Recover the amino acids of this structure.
């Protein structure tokens, strides 16, 4: 994973301006940033952030190492475009590469992380889960559109090499 992240950072330094010159990408980044904030606000209001904090303090960790393999180049580039500083090494042994002692460092997260509901969280009730999923729907839609757009720009750049 260290090597993958290093390669992505290198690609970002070359392609950053090309991405940001694209109006559609800038607009999608704005909308994704707002959607991520709305999802987080909802998680705070529903008590999920507190539940996870308590759970982590008890020594539990649901951010397994294998999940990092679900993260491809596009979403990591999107995180860099959102101002996230990707780590150069794993902070927590045997856990996901993007986990830190204070939680996940990523802003844009894959559906597997956004949609994850453990039994402890399911206790907030069906109505609240539906409310959260509706709000997260916008985040996932913006992420999908951005991944498509970033991927298309990268493929085009490859053909012009
Ligand atoms: S999602 Fe569930 S298992 Fe993971 S930290 Fe939160 S409460 Fe714990
Ligand atoms: S939420 Fe973040 S730290 Fe946890 S598994 Fe997903 S990417 Fe990794």
């Amino acid at each position: 994973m260290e090597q993958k992240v290093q390669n992505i950072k290198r690609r970002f330094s070359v392609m950053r301006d090309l991405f940001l010159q694209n109006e559609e990408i800038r607009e999608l980044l704005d909308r994704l940033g707002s959607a991520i904030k709305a999802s987080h606000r909802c998680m705070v209001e529903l008590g999920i952030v507190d539940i996870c904090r308590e759970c982590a303090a008890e020594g539990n960790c649901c951010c397994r190492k294998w999940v990092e393999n679900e993260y491809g180049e596009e979403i990591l580039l999107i995180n860099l475009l959102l101002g996230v500083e990707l780590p150069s090494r794993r902070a927590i042994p045997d856990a996901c590469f993007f986990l830190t002692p204070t939680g996940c460092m990523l802003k844009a997260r894959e559906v597997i992380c956004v949609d994850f509901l453990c039994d402890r969280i399911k206790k907030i009730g069906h109505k609240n889960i539906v409310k959260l999923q509706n709000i997260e729907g916008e985040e996932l839609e913006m992420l999908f559109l951005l991944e498509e757009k970033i991927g298309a720009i990268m493929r085009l750049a490859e053909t012009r090499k």
Residues 63, 67, 96, 98-99, 104, 106, 109, 113 surround iron/sulfur cluster (ligand 2) (CB under 6 Å). Residues 104 and 158 are 32 Å apart (CA to CA).
